[in-house]
Acetyl-coenzyme A synthetase, cytoplasmic (Electrophorus voltai), 696 residues
Amino acid sequence: MIPDKAPKKDVLHAAEDLKKEAHISSFEAFKELYEKSVESPEEFWGDVAKDFFWKTKHTGQFLDYNFDVTKGKIFVKCMEGATTNICYNILDHNIHERQLGDRVAFYWEGNEPGDEKTVTYRELLEQVCKFANVLKSQGVKKGDRVSIYMPMVIELVVAMLACARIGAVHSIVFAGFSAESLCERIIDSQCSLLITADGFYRGDKLISLKVIADEALQKCRDKSVLVECCIMLKHLSKEEEEVSPSPGSLSPPAKRSCPGLQVPWNPEVDLCWHTLMEEASNECEPVWCESEDPLFILYTSGSTGKPKGVLHTVSGYMLYTAATFKLVFDYHPDDIYWCTADIGWITGHSYITYGPLANGASSVLVREHPHRFCYFVSKVCPPYPDVSRMWQIVDKYQVSKFYTAPTAIRLLMKYGTEPVHKCKRTSLKILGTVGEPINPEAWQWFYSVVGDKRCPVVDTFWQTETGGHVLTPLPAATPLKPGSATFPFFGVVPAILNESGEELEGPSEGYLVFKKPWPGVMRTVYGNHERFEATYFKKFPGYYVTGDGCRRDKDGYYWITGRIDDMLNVSGHLLSTAEVESALVEHQAVAEAAVVGTPHPVKGESLYCFVTLADGISYTAALEAELRQQVRERIGAIATPDYIQNAPGLPKTRSGKIMRRVLRKIASNQRDMGDVSTLADSTVLEQLFENRCGTA
């Protein structure tokens, strides 16, 4: 599983000063602890559990499971019989037992310089208790589902932790989703209450969130589903005389005027967050929950078919996010941590809220997603936003651990090194990437330009379903290979299977699966356990099937090759779109690339490539020929692109992910796009159709 010795060639090693303070400082120590975690999971995870409070201890097997559909119902149970409360552990326990009440929990940074707020653990607990009492006053009780549709403000964290405190199940919907998407998720999870905000700015665009929420609630009513209550936070709207946050609010008042803000109000359903908080007590006893009680439901994107409500439970998720955060980012009490994700996605759940707070960490929480800083730079007058804004925030808060997406890195690469070098960044110690496989060129740029070749890059592979990192380097223990997810995390046992379900040994490529559970893995698809079993366990009984392709090299390192449905069959050869994309972006003229398949009468599928060029580069026939040759040289003649299209902009969701479903439609010249409500900039579609290559 883990090689006996770490490779010495073609790898990068952590600096000695980082190794001196690291929790796990050598490959030998990592291998020994990994073997313990697999052979004696109760002992390994029992040590992690000692850091938390348990109202009652577990009585059964520490980790019990069945992964084989032929042997009965699929299940995973962790610490059965134990009772605890995750909100109590990450707030009360930190304050009273670890004396962290005055430590900053979040440095909140708004859309513009000067929009800021500091929140301590004690202040956060007080607000969580007040809002928990608000929820109780509206009849919310243990097991009830609560939908949350809010921008990146501290109150979003307050709302989710208030649910956890009283045993309610939060279902957060990313604030970029449409009314239809919100309605669908409310109905599927049977939520009785919605929490939202009046609105927010996305770059220079005003989003009237309450209008969208009301549309969703009307759609619910049209389908005979009544949501009894909607609590609205005043994030933008305020009285003229207000110069400080409203009572019950941790967010500062908006610095911009909002003349276009619409705030519809239905007195039969709507309640004001601030009014309710004024009347609420700041003391609320936690509701003690069973280990396997549900903590939250989070829906996958639903780009194909009905979204899946991934269900995570209390104890296992708490242990796993706490351990992965501490060890993957090598967290220490003096660190300032910044994850650029949105809490509406699993990364925000695990590595903005639960993981960092479980370790008593101080985090930066930024209202705007970083790739939007660059997107709006040409649309808003200086000084905001600035392409250097991310690094200005790093310097301002002395961020030491920084976690972002490859999409953001590739976009920043377009602007060169100058915006980065304008800032010091000397506080940075560890860099991390999440969301998709990172191509080696972007990895090297991140490592060399942002990290000045002194900060290890932890390229983490995981999913909404896994709850936390499953393949990842450890910064001081595992030598790094640019673009590789490296090795499994503790307790995780991967395998690579061929199409027949046979395990492949040594260097190999095939389906990535896992042979055993870990505490943080999902337990079911909410309301549809049959779909859970069919999606993740039916194809290869006895294994959790990730849906991703993977390659293991001669040194035992794992390389994610992309979703299996992103694998193309060209003349009988299986090609990874991620591999072709990586070959394209190695060319200095290419800032970003996306590859999809389009039907071919002879080969089955042909390669259709969209490329976004670096600033100042023109698309020419000579450049196109160079790109074709580059792919031939990197992968082979079989991977030579059939079509290459100049794409000044790619269709992306507001979280920065490329919508390949849309690109497949464009490549096939199909104008019926389906639901594109999550598209950040719909104007790119017409331009892409205009530039489209003729495939017929």
The first strand starts at residue 63 and ends at 66. Residues 240-244, 375-383 have pLDDT under 50 and may be disordered. The longest helix spans residues 121-137. The two ends are 48 Å apart (CA to CA).
